[in-house]
Amino acid sequence: MKKKSPQVKDSLPVDNSANTSAKLPEKNNSITINQRADVIREPEKKVVQVPPPVTAISNNLAQIYNVTNSPQLNKSKQLNITINKLITYAKKHKLPTEKLSITLIDLKNNTISGHKQYQPRYPASVVKMFWMVALNAQIKAGIIPWDGEVNTDLNKMMLKSDNNAGSRILNRITGTKSSRKKLSNTEFQEWKKRREKINTFFEQADYKNININQKTFPITDLNITSPVGPDLQIRGDRNNPERNKITTYQAARLMYEIVSNQAVAPEYGEPMLGLLKRDIHPEVWRKMPPNPIDFNPVESFFGQSLSPDKVVFFASKAGWTSFSRQEVAFVVTKNGKTRYILSIFGDHPAYAKSKKVFPDMSRLVFNQMTKTTK
Q1: SS3 string of the chain?
Q2: How far apart are CA 197 and CA 213, in angstroms?
Q3: 128 with 161: CB under 8 angstroms?
Q4: DSSP conformation class of 361
Q5: Beta bridge pairs of residue 324
Q6: Dist. CA 100–CA 121, nearest whole Å
Q7: CB 269 within 8 A of CB 257
Q8: Residue 138 has what DSSP assignment?
Q9: What is the pLDDT along the chain (374 residues), one digit of tens a residue?
Q10: Angstrom distance (rounded) from CA 173 to CA 137
Q11: What's the rounded Cα separation, in Å, for the pair 94 and 85?
Q12: Phi and psi at residue 260, to the nearest 5°
């Protein structure tokens, strides 16, 4: 009788689990970021992307993300104070700060500060924001045809953090698929080469040492609860498996590039931002209970502690497993004086278990940011 191969637990994104500054554009397609908040008002309404017509078909599998240089952001003593307050909070609540990464970007002043922000950590479902950008880049290039199935999967992946949809999208981007059968060495090397092109897409655009080539689990429509077959083979050493890894800086940078309409092309910015828009009105997000079907992107995350009377626009991508909690968000106040991006990864079960740590940290940052811009 054969012994069962050990299964490696993975992301359970549902509730089971500087130089001179280059100013952020105030106007994009005649709509400012603050005005855009009034355009996208219904986060629960299905967002339909309408990409521009494709003029050429390409089979190039080595596409590179179009924003090849990191944004030029200045260091900020004022933001350092906020970061230090977050670290103090973590220590006070006996949360391990060596497992905590933070990036904070002030979009009004184009400044940045952070704590261990270049430390690669497991991103859970935050990885889906990267898959969204890569998918749109391939649609624009004509590599992936735009159709209703892609639109449905993209909406499910981003609005509900659906792993089944995410699985299908990663398959499309990389030309691979999951199976229970272990591949031969020759087959696996070809499969791995294709799956790793999602890393190359960002790595060659200065997203150094990023790894986003592995699916989030469980994938219920395949009845797969954790990696098997080639998805397990790509992990390498089972005692020290390779896993998805990104930094809070990389998550914040990508959000910055989406917000500023740089990611993929200007016409793709607003649809992608629409898929990240979350309604922080309690009467709305409380109707999305934690269960294995719908992922609640507000409860126990940044948006829960923010007042819809003060915040006109909130966009985020969150992730959660039994051993980690992570989120990146874009926040705009109603008076338009405060705009910032916050990215926090807590790579320890203590962050996963706490339902108040991210709301508390979010409120602390909001209070600090609005205090300095009154």
Answers
A1: CCCCCCCCCCCCCCCCCCCCCCCCCCEECCEEHHHHHHHCCCCCCCCCCCCCCCCCCCCCCCCCCCCCCCCCCEECHHHHHHHHHHHHHHHHCCCCHHHEEEEEEECCCCEEEEECCCCCECCHHHHHHHHHHHHHHHHHHCCCCCCHHHHHHHHHHHHCCCHHHHHHHHHHHHCCCCCCCCCCHHHHHHHHHHHCHHHHHHHCCCCCCCECCCCCCCEHHHCECCCCCHHHHCCCCCCCCCCCEECHHHHHHHHHHHHCCCCCCHHHHHHHHHHHECCCCHHHHCCCCCCCCCCCCCCCCHHHHCCCCCEEEEEEEEEEECCEEEEEEEEEECCCCCEEEEEEEECCHHHHHCCCHHHHHHHHHHHHHHHCCC
A2: 8
A3: yes
A4: H
A5: 321
A6: 9
A7: no
A8: H
A9: 444 434 434 443 333 333 333 333 333 332 333 333 333 333 344 555 545 544 443 444 448 999 999 999 999 999 999 999 999 999 999 999 999 999 999 999 999 999 999 999 999 999 999 999 999 999 999 999 999 999 999 999 999 999 999 999 999 999 999 999 999 999 999 999 999 999 999 999 999 999 999 999 999 999 999 999 999 999 998 888 899 999 999 999 999 999 999 999 999 999 999 999 999 999 998 887 655 555 789 999 999 999 999 999 999 999 999 999 999 999 999 999 999 999 999 999 999 999 999 999 999 999 999 986 65
A10: 10
A11: 14
A12: -90, 10
Distance CA 37, CA 194 (A): 38
Could you give the CA distance from residue 249 to residue 101 in angstroms, rounded to a whole number?
Answer: 9
Residues 6+ apart with CB under 8 A from 315: 255, 259, 273, 276, 277, 278, 329, 330
In sequence order, which ranges of 52-162 are alpha helices (DSSP H)? Answer: 77-92, 127-141, 148-159
Q: Tell me, what amino acid is at 253?
A: R
Helices 163-174 and 127-141: crossing angle in degrees, nearest 10, is: 40
Distance between first and last Cα of the chain: 70
Do residues 55 and 277 make contact, with C-beta atoms less than 8 angstroms apart?
no
